[in-house]
Write a structure and sequence with these properties.
single chain; alpha/beta; FAD/NAD(P)-binding domain; 3 domains; seven-stranded mixed beta sheet; disordered N terminus; binds flavin-adenine dinucleotide
Length: about 500
């Protein structure tokens, strides 16, 4: 049913999508007395950071680790503003144990800065100048980001916010704006250190979608440093769903509304201004147009263009079409007996293999393992979630989808068996998700995940803005600055809320 306009409220805002980006924007706006309606096509809110339950196991769909929970971190700031407690979480230490091809000893990303320094000096002799450069750039970038710049600026007000965030200390980052990690390695005389490069490729692909040669250095400085204290990566107690659930509760506490199983079919634009959305109730089939003063789209830039149809500005559309093909994910979810898990298994592991998988999976697996008492598995059981990057076009056109999915699952389990004791006796439950699964459950074009690659041409100052060329239409989520991850999309949501307040 169409929702009533609450006239005592400030302005009517419709949010398309209840991912962490949409929920954060919606909750913050409702808290500021806007009249907020969030619509999501799925059954459960949270998008790529939601969960599902099977046979007593709770599986995180996509995101398994969270940054920004420490005081001053973005989730911490937003939850404080909303007047609610952050859900309990445990710091991951090491944040990740990385196994390079053919190696049996991992590279441990320790949380303690000193311990991580010793580890990297032992693992990559002679590389300290590179890490020191990263540390200096991270310090300046982190302080700059903490002053809430708007990137990329698209209005005078945005430009002012950017200017206000700049300090003399920020200027040390300027000469590196057009540097990639590959350039920095060469600058530090490490261009031929293949082992270091392989490690960086592996880690950066997780956060930036691209390898060291292509990743923008200023982005990498943050991505490679947030796992150390006083920042850090965390496992939420229970599941990732707790983050979304708290945001939904706050939204509703402050008079906002969330309608699940409601898909937005198109965004209405009149004379260059967003005026509302066309909604379809997936249960009843009812279709109607809902008017809004502002529309916040928590979708990919590709989906934004689709929702605008012939109202999409041609320059914007062309830019989206010219983007490098984004990645999809192939994810295997296992419910296992704890006998399958080696003693002292870290919460996250990354494995790299000599070759790509047989069906377009890339040559690495990112693995998240539950721990006793973390709420994801019954006593003496655990969950293992393993993901690899895949080509969405391949899966989109796959003729023998079921067969290929089965082969891919078997190959993933076989690779995981080099570390875990995975047998028919220890595997209690198994399921896999392909780009088609992600397309269906998160509404993302072809199941693309993780946002736009953080190449020089698309990171920070050169990326997609929250302010779109259509007036009062805003983009939040991992297509915008500062990129993917629940922390990144929360930052983008906070920016949009500030922009709407000053619109
Ligand atoms: C396998 C995998 C592992 C990851 N691991 C991590 C990790 O460990 N840590 C981390 O921080 N990040 C991780 N990420 C990235 C992180 O999950 C995402 O960047 C982030 O959750 C994206 O949030 P979002 O709000 O931008 O969008 P989404 O999560 O995509 O949410 C968008 C929402 O909009 C809805 N929607 C879309 N179109 C419509 C429409 N037309 N009408 C109505 N509703 C619509 C969808 O149903 C969805 O709920 C991972 C991602 C994947 C896929």
């Amino acid at each position: 049913m169409p929702t009533q306009h609450a006239s005592a409220k400030k302005y009517r805002v419709i949010v398309i999508g209840a991912g962490i980006g949409g929920l954060t924007a919606g909750a913050l706006l409702a808290h500021k007395n806007y009249d907020v309606l969030i619509l999501d096509q799925a059954i459960v809110p949270g998008g790529c950071a939601s969960t599902f339950k099977r046979q007593g196991f709770t599986f995180d769909v996509g995101a398994t680790q969270v940054a920004g929970l420490e005081p001053g971190g973005i989730h911490h700031r937003i939850f404080t503003e909303l007047g609610i407690d952050l859900p309990p979480a445990t710091p991951c230490d090491p944040a990740c144990a990385v196994y390079l091809p053919g190696e049996t000893e991992p590279i441990n990303l320790w949380r303690n800065q000193q311990k991580w320094k010793q580890e990297r000096q032992r693992q990559f002799p002679g590389s300290e100048p590179f890490w020191q450069l990263l540390a200096n750039l991270f310090k300046a970038s982190w302080e700059f980001q903490g002053r809430d710049p708007v990137l990329p600026p698209r209005s005078l007000w945005d430009l002012l916010q950017l200017a206000k965030a700049i300090r003399p200390s920020t200027l040390i980052t300027v000469p590196y704006t057009l540097f990639t990690v590959g350039d920095a390695l060469r600058l530090c005389g490490l261009g031929n250190d293949q082992r270091l490069r392989t490690f960086l490729d592996l880690q950066l692909k997780l956060y930036s979608q691209v390898n060291a040669e292509e990743t923008a250095l200023l982005y990498a400085a943050t991505a490679l440093s947030v796992s150390q204290s006083p920042q850090g990566l965390y496992h939420m107690q229970g599941s990732m769903q707790v983050l979304s659930d708290r945001l939904v509760a706050t939204l509703e506490r402050d008079g906002g509304k969330l309608l699940m199983r409601h898909i937005v079919k198109s965004i209405q634009v009149n004379k260059g201004k967003a005026t509302g959305v066309v909604i379809r109730n997936q249960k009843t089939g009812e279709v109607w147009t809902e008017a809004a003063d502002h529309v916040v789209a928590n979708v990919t830039s590709q989906d934004l263009v689709r929702l605008l149809g012939d109202k999409a500005p041609s320059g914007y559309k062309k830019r989206v079409e010219r983007l490098h093909p984004p990645s999809g994910a192939f994810v295997v979810y296992l419910g296992v007996d704890t006998k399958a898990i080696p003693p002292n298994c870290p919460p996250h592991l990354q494995f790299m293999y000599d070759a790509d998988g047989p069906i377009g999976e890339n040559n690495s697996l990112f693995v998240s393992v539950s721990h006793p008492g973390d709420g994801r598995a019954p006593t003496d059981k655990a969950t293992i979630i393993a993901s690899s990057f895949v080509d969405t076009e391949y899966w989109d056109k796959a003729a023998n989808y079921t067969l290929i999915k089965k082969r891919c699952t078997e190959e993933t389990i076989s690779r995981l068996s080099q570390y875990f004791d995975l047998t028919p006796e220890t595997i209690i439950y198994q399921e896999a998700a392909t780009p088609l699964t992600f397309a269906r459950f998160t509404g993302r074009d072809k199941g693309i995940v993780g946002g736009i690659g953080q190449r020089l041409s698309t990171f920070g100052p050169f990326g997609f803005a929250n302010r779109t060329p259509i007036k009062d239409l805003w983009l939040v989520g991992d297509s915008t600055h500062p990129g993917e991850g629940t922390a990144g999309v929360s930052y983008s949501a906070m920016t949009v809320v500030r922009q709407i307040e000053h619109a």
